[in-house]
Amino acid sequence: MTLTMELGARSYDIILQRGALSEAGRLLELNRKCLIVTGALVPPQYAARVARQCARPVVVTVPSGEGSKSFPVYEMLCRRMLEENFHRTDCVVAVGGGVVGDLAGFAAASFMRGIDFYNIPTTVLSQVDSSIGGKVAINLDHVKNIVGAFWQPKRVLIDPDTLRTLPPRQVSNGLAEAIKMACTSDAELFAFLEENPLPPHMERIIEGSLRIKKRIVEQDETERGPRRLLNFGHTIGHGIESTGALLHGECVALGMLPMCAPDVRARLLPVLEKAGLPTTAEWDRAAVWQAIRHDKKFAGDAVDIVVVDVVGQGEVRRVTTEALKARFDAAYREA
Amino acid sequence: MTLTMELGARSYDIILQRGALSEAGRLLELNRKCLIVTGALVPPQYAARVARQCARPVVVTVPSGEGSKSFPVYEMLCRRMLEENFHRTDCVVAVGGGVVGDLAGFAAASFMRGIDFYNIPTTVLSQVDSSIGGKVAINLDHVKNIVGAFWQPKRVLIDPDTLRTLPPRQVSNGLAEAIKMACTSDAELFAFLEENPLPPHMERIIEGSLRIKKRIVEQDETERGPRRLLNFGHTIGHGIESTGALLHGECVALGMLPMCAPDVRARLLPVLEKAGLPTTAEWDRAAVWQAIRHDKKFAGDAVDIVVVDVVGQGEVRRVTTEALKARFDAAYREA
User: Fold this and answer.
1) Which among B78, B87, B148 is the nearest to A147, CB-wise?
2) B286 lies in the same domain as B197
3) Which residues of A are catalytic, by number?
4) Which of A78, A124, B188, B215 is spaced 20 to 30 A from A247 at the CA atom?
């Protein structure tokens, strides 16, 4: 299945297809120098398979985890391209999860002021969400995604076969973002998630998520308006994430709960549980609240949050710090 | 005088006006946090004057010279904005020459995936050329501008009064880029440069250069086509520059000579001399040629160079390495 992200001159195809990895050479323009960036926890055969289909591959494996979204690793990728005499007409290919895609994408966005970028996501999280839409970035001093660009890929290749090697916790981690999108933007997909077992329907879930994200990004490429819906669960989620014990999707799961009307929350809880996601956690509540307060999205005493009063109809709402605190306290007292 | 760079949603005004620096608060939107980046050799009163007109200024002075267009200085600027809790709605203001503009512009292009950027160039070189057009970058391992972005400023403020404090060699340095643009693109401006003393006509020269550059950038924002005309003199110029003894404009002056037809060269030589620019130099010819060969613009055995056979009608031409070498040898044997 092919979806086209319609962004004028920056339009591109998203190809969702079992076995696509083995067809990269046909589906992408790899007859040039290709910097293939992959992660230490990504099965090495994936990058190797892509490399075999490139004319002149250069494979770089970065350590797994957010720590690689750093200035030193970013600089290393740029230097590697410089050493290999990469030209404006060469390209970068990400083979891995969200960290690899964000990092490699920013290197592609800025090397020689921007070269072609292909994304081949191999985790649920990156397949349903982070590999499309063009947000690329690195972190600085523990603040996530603070330096980066909007740089759309030339093409995205999604091969669900790569999910077979993914640990179950990582599958759950990615499902959180799919549930997030259904909850804010697609009541039908949300009902599907409620009514069906999830693992056998992974392709349907990926496709549904991609369709939602495509629609939102097309409306708002640089996140000035409706794209902020995709931040549902992330205001409190990032605060929880900063305490370090949970994965991104797990934190988003927890972060969604305080933002829902009671009957939405009642529907969301069993879906999260079915997906293997946490719905309550034992963290230092004061520390999490401090981290939320330091979030970059606060403007004075107000913050824009995404709330869902009706499934499929999320909205951005500006609330006071106090109102957010009340939601935060109430959600976990109940849980 | 105000020129508008017409680039659709990225259009902006270029204001050329004596005393503009003192009106920055009226001409720019400074009622927010402003990271003001300036250079150690820029008279500090310029940044201070701008800072007084900002609601919440943060002034950072970077060392002078290309060395500041580096990953560590770029990271430092991003960290400074992070520490000062800069938001997407805040801005960066460059007050200085090309190094300051390129560096500060890249920080603006990438901090939070892009925030507003104002450029207030204070040298001839940046006023006639580098401050407009949106090319921002840093260097890596002595390769110039290898990592960067196309990020258009929100407005450019050009105050010719700042040139009074500029050493004469820096005035000549900037005039080289004005001569370059006249030679490739504006026979009338070139004739003006031939027929008049230059220092009393600096505003006319700046305005003429801006009009040429505006036209070229509007045709080709991301340098895929006609914008490459602006590289006239830069292929050999960058090679000479890498030997380290001369300023950028001086190298461009020397780099233009081999690219001209004999009668164009005969007209160019006296203009360069009048501007105080070198027309011959004592460098290690083999070393310069090696540096030229390593230039990033070479594709195999061919390179695109800009040649001027008729004043005002520069063109991009693909030549072999041998043909370039012949031009290189011939020009300086004669000189």
Assistant:
1) B78
2) yes
3) 113, 135, 177, 213, 223, 227, 231, 234, 238, 248
4) A78
Gyration radius from chain A CA atoms: 19
Number of domains forming the structure of chain B: 2
Distance of CA A222 to the CA centre of its chain: 15
What is the residue-level pLDDT of chain A in tens, covering all 335 positions?
999 999 999 999 999 999 999 999 999 999 999 999 999 999 999 999 999 999 999 999 999 999 999 999 999 999 999 999 999 999 999 999 999 999 999 999 999 999 999 999 999 999 999 999 999 999 999 888 999 999 999 999 999 999 999 999 999 999 999 999 999 999 999 999 999 999 999 999 999 999 999 999 999 999 888 899 999 999 999 899 888 889 999 999 999 999 999 999 999 999 999 999 999 877 788 889 988 887 766 667 889 999 999 999 999 999 999 999 999 988 876 44
Instruction: State the count of interchain CB pairs (< 8 A) between A and B.
Output: 73
Give B75→chain A minimum CA distance, Å.
Answer: 7
Amino acid (1-letter code) at residue B181: M
Mutate to test the interface with A, among B88, B113, B141 (most CBs of A within 10 A): B113
A73, closest residue in chain B (CA to CA): B71
Task: Enter the tokens of residue B320.
Answer: 């072999």
Instruction: Quote the longest CA-to-CA distance of chain A.
Output: 58
CA A52 – CA A12 distance, rounded (Å): 24
Closest CA–CA distance from residue B203 to any residue of chain A (Å): 31
- Grouping H, G, I as helix, E, B as strand and the rest as coil, residue A167 is coil
Q: Which residue does chain A place closest to B147, by CA atoms?
A: A111
Interface of B with A in 118-137 (CB under 8 A): 135, 137
| Chain A nearest-CA residue for B86 | A296
B161 shares its domain with B282: no
CB-CB contact of A149 with A106 (8 Å): yes
The pTM of this model reads: 0.94
Supply the range of the domain harboring residue B265.
168-334
CA distances from A50 to A47, A85, A118, A303, B215 (A): 5, 21, 11, 43, 43
State whether B38 and B160 are in the same domain. Answer: yes
**Both B316 and B177 in a single domain?**
yes
| Among candidate residues A130, A165, A200, the one where a domain is terminated | A165
User: Do A230 and A178 contact (CB within 8 A), yes or no?
Assistant: no
Burial B222-235 (b: 16+ CB within 10 A, else e): ebeebbbbbbbbbb
- Of B85, B141, B149, which has the smallest distance from its Cβ to A113's Cβ? B149
Which among B71, B140, B143 has the least Cβ separation from residue A71? B71
List, in order, residues 6 or more apart from A139 with CB less than 8 Å away. A66, A69, A70, A145, A146, A147
Angle between helices A285-293 and A321-334 (to 10 degrees): 150
Does A140 contact B114 at a Cβ distance shorter than 8 Å?
no
Q: Which of B69, B110, B297 to mutate to test the interface with A (most CBs of A within 10 A)?
A: B110
In angstroms, the CA B113 to CA A299 distance is 18
Chain B residues in contact with A75 by the CB 8 A cut-off are 71, 140
For residue B196, indicate whether it is catalytic: no
CATH number of the domain bearing residue B273: 1.20.1090.10
Encoded tokens for A102: 């964000």
Q: Above 0.85 for ipTM, yes or no? A: yes
